UniProtKB/TrEMBL annotation:
Name by which UniProt lists this protein: Mandelate racemase/muconate lactonizing enzyme family protein
Source organism (scientific name): Cupriavidus gilardii
InterPro entries in UniProt: Enolase-like_C_sf, Enolase-like_N, Enolase_C-like, Mandel_Rmase/mucon_lact_enz_CS, Mandelate_racemase_C, Mandelate_racemase_N_dom, RHMD-like
Domain Mandelate racemase/muconate lactonizing enzyme C-terminal: 158-255
Protein's UniProt keywords contain Magnesium: yes
Keyword match Cell inner membrane: no
Organism superkingdom: Bacteria
Amino acid sequence: MHDSQPSATPVKVERLDAFVLRAPADPPVQTSFGIMRDRPAVLVRLTDSDGCEGWGEVWCNFPTVGAEHRARLLLAYGRPIVTGQAWASPRQAWETLVARLAVLMLQTGEPGPLHQIAAGIDMAMWDLFARRAGQPVWRALGGAGAWPVPVYASGINPTDPAELALAKRAEGYRAFKLKVGFGAERDLGNLRDMREALGGDAVLMVDANQAWDAKDAVAAGHRMAPFDLLWLEEPVRADAPPQTWAKLAAEQPLRLAGGENLCGHAQYRDFIGEPGMSVIQPDAGKWGGLTGCLDVAQQAIAAGKWYCPHWLGAGIGLLASLHLKTAAGGAGYVEVDANPNPLRDAMAAPVMHLSDGCVQLGDAPGFGVVPDLGVLAPYLVELQQAGL
């Protein structure tokens, strides 16, 4: 089964359920634009007419009330579209969702959250279709075989970063991404500490989370270059045009990464077509699900760029990212949040077997796990559903 091919038997979705979870963030996750003081997750469960389930996850990190809002959108607008219908493929369902929600995106001014619920439903569709076919999602996506996918420890905070990086190295990570954008002195001091602690062989990246304008980004690229960085991520605003990124790439020495905050095939095509952003990082829970992100991955690889899935949530989205990268192939890494997150561990740990900086998936159907709602019960948030 490939995403462009219909299923031999259409799948009728009978139920859509949404679950909101929150776990403490200890320590809080710091970025240049805000601090995450808890770890939210929105899960979507699809159940077909035979009782088979598929699970997906919706991006919901910001704002702090965003998880409950997205879950209500799932129930109010996603559920009526996908339930009671027989779907020939996940792509058919995703394209229908995006088309049916398009006017609502304009009316509400909320294209992001509505794209995100479509992405989470698409993720669950792929899990459902693959489970019914008795195959892993990476194979359903067209992957030829499982292989050791490089991963990196991400989200390393600017407070004592070397300590966390050393702990992740002891777990088997070989690549590490530091949050920057907290002032030149602090950023450089943290990079110095990490390079001294990890040694010259460690792969280091930095993420500015859109902290600078173009002039400041050029200066930052030059001053950080001596630390032998693999890439500089989102140095400027995500809505800066591709030509700005191309100019930035030409004026400073670091490889540029981005894409988690882009939306739509056309926008990704524009950035892939310009030389500036050479590491393309769509987030399967933010836009596109697996269907859209696989399209982007294939275009990026064909253009000679790296496809590196972005993810900083719970375990289902992380596994989806690993399945996407396994199917797409090519150079690059999958992001794994370095900070404690029981919602990630409870869902992803059974198949996250890390060895020398890589994870190789198995042949279990779907994403290879089913969330245990009993284990997750302490983190479940009661969702008020008045009017739904």
